[in-house]
Amino acid sequence: MIFLRSGIHPPEPVRERPARGGPVSCGTLWVRTSSDPRTGGESGMTALDPAIPESARPESAAPVSADPEPVDRSDLQRRTVRTLIAAQVVGGVGMGSALTVGGLLAEDLSGSKSWSGVATTAITLGAALFALPMSRAATRYGRRVALTAGWAVAAIAAGGVILAAVLGWFPLLIAALLVFGAGTAANLQSRYAATDLADDAGRARALSVVVWSTTVGAVLGPNLNEPGAVVGRALDLPELAGPFLFSIVSFAGAGIILWVALRPDPLLVARADLGDRVPPRAGLRGAFAVIRRAPRALLGLATVAFGHVVMVSVMAMTPVHMKDHGTALTLVGLTISLHIAGMYALSPVVGWTADRFGRIPVILGGQFVLLLAVFTAGTSGHSTWRTMVGLILLGLGWSCCLVAGSALLAESVPAGERPGVQGVSDLLMNLAGAAGGAVSGSVLGMAGYGGLNLVAGLLTAPVLCVAAGFALGRGRRRTA
């Protein structure tokens, strides 16, 4: 009896094709076996003769997929988005609680306030470092494996932060926070997983809903700092290390949700539907080559990166500006909370608008909102309410850039190339944010808060000009 691996269609006999110039082998018969890649099944070549050892299989026998059973894409897309939202909420709680005490822990271990900002910078750089490895893992193994691995690595890094706090070792803290950035990378790349099965009419909306779910973690996370300190004391740990215990639990929970529920894998299903094979491994050069061939993808990439650097540079120095003008700390905290609400709370509306009216109009609108934001904040002076309004608008402009830019990027490149290009986008986005946060303090010292906002406003010019060119070109084609 011939034993075959599970397949959807009967095996197709295929004669072994010897290497060019090699001896001709007669009598060895192989069958092409496959199963549905959407369910994670294997495919390959199996010898009909059970006496032939595994090592005798030809290396050139590449996996071949059979036609899979039809999948209800709309139902699978809804389940995928629900799974991603659940993971974002659970994982975001741990991220929010850790970000608020990371700077305090860095100050405590280093003994200097000047090092407190290194914590956020380390996490941002870590997210940039993990962006490409995670995108390559998604290309090779699917979103489920890549995102689960990201949350798992972040959970281990949270344990490293606790160990650094116990030992009082600042270098270990910075190293752990760099690896901790894998959680941020997983959080960011989840939005792209929502677009794998989405059609053009609903891609931005699906992406925006996953972005919106981050709001829950951003709101709940900081409120766990005090309970975390209580748990830390109960376990004889430093108080500032306590919230990272919640990070371990929430990151592990997000990973488990994705591993169990994100199946069939949306990226593998999309690739199977289009008949795409796994593209060859490509680094930055290959990804940029893909982007250069698609001008709209380049616009999407620039929109995300420039929008992020404008937002981070102004947001990072706003608390310093408000404190220098004697604003109460409660109002400073309220301003940042409203800014975060502006970033995430209206993202579903932004997504619907991008699907209804197009990506480029929303990108243009986002640039004007950013300009209005920096004008309002930059001319606020001692006015707290004007600063608040400026920061809310800053968050809304960032949301327009992220949602519309990411959707434009995703739909402008072939499906097989998307994970690598999306990894480059997140890499540049986080590097731009880290650079903006690092430089903004110097600009604030030299030119003041108004000068900082002026410089940030000038950074909208490249995207504004290119997007306007696309919009005008499209208008000419319609009237031609």
Automatic annotation (TrEMBL):
<dbReference type="GO" id="GO:0022857">
    <property type="term" value="F:transmembrane transporter activity"/>
</dbReference>
<dbReference type="InterPro" id="IPR036259">
    <property type="entry name" value="MFS_trans_sf"/>
</dbReference>
<feature type="transmembrane region" description="Helical">
    <location>
        <begin position="358"/>
        <end position="377"/>
    </location>
</feature>
<feature type="transmembrane region" description="Helical">
    <location>
        <begin position="114"/>
        <end position="133"/>
    </location>
</feature>
<feature type="transmembrane region" description="Helical">
    <location>
        <begin position="328"/>
        <end position="346"/>
    </location>
</feature>
<feature type="region of interest" description="Disordered">
    <location>
        <begin position="1"/>
        <end position="75"/>
    </location>
</feature>
<dbReference type="GO" id="GO:0005886">
    <property type="term" value="C:plasma membrane"/>
</dbReference>
<feature type="transmembrane region" description="Helical">
    <location>
        <begin position="431"/>
        <end position="449"/>
    </location>
</feature>
<keyword id="KW-0812">Transmembrane</keyword>
<feature type="domain" description="Major facilitator superfamily (MFS) profile">
    <location>
        <begin position="80"/>
        <end position="479"/>
    </location>
</feature>
<feature type="transmembrane region" description="Helical">
    <location>
        <begin position="244"/>
        <end position="262"/>
    </location>
</feature>
<feature type="transmembrane region" description="Helical">
    <location>
        <begin position="206"/>
        <end position="224"/>
    </location>
</feature>
<dbReference type="InterPro" id="IPR020846">
    <property type="entry name" value="MFS_dom"/>
</dbReference>
<feature type="transmembrane region" description="Helical">
    <location>
        <begin position="455"/>
        <end position="473"/>
    </location>
</feature>
<feature type="transmembrane region" description="Helical">
    <location>
        <begin position="389"/>
        <end position="410"/>
    </location>
</feature>
<feature type="transmembrane region" description="Helical">
    <location>
        <begin position="145"/>
        <end position="166"/>
    </location>
</feature>
<feature type="transmembrane region" description="Helical">
    <location>
        <begin position="172"/>
        <end position="194"/>
    </location>
</feature>
<protein>
    <submittedName>
        <fullName>MFS transporter</fullName>
    </submittedName>
</protein>
<dbReference type="Pfam" id="PF07690">
    <property type="entry name" value="MFS_1"/>
</dbReference>
<feature type="transmembrane region" description="Helical">
    <location>
        <begin position="83"/>
        <end position="102"/>
    </location>
</feature>
<keyword id="KW-0472">Membrane</keyword>
<keyword id="KW-1133">Transmembrane helix</keyword>
<feature type="transmembrane region" description="Helical">
    <location>
        <begin position="297"/>
        <end position="316"/>
    </location>
</feature>
<dbReference type="InterPro" id="IPR011701">
    <property type="entry name" value="MFS"/>
</dbReference>
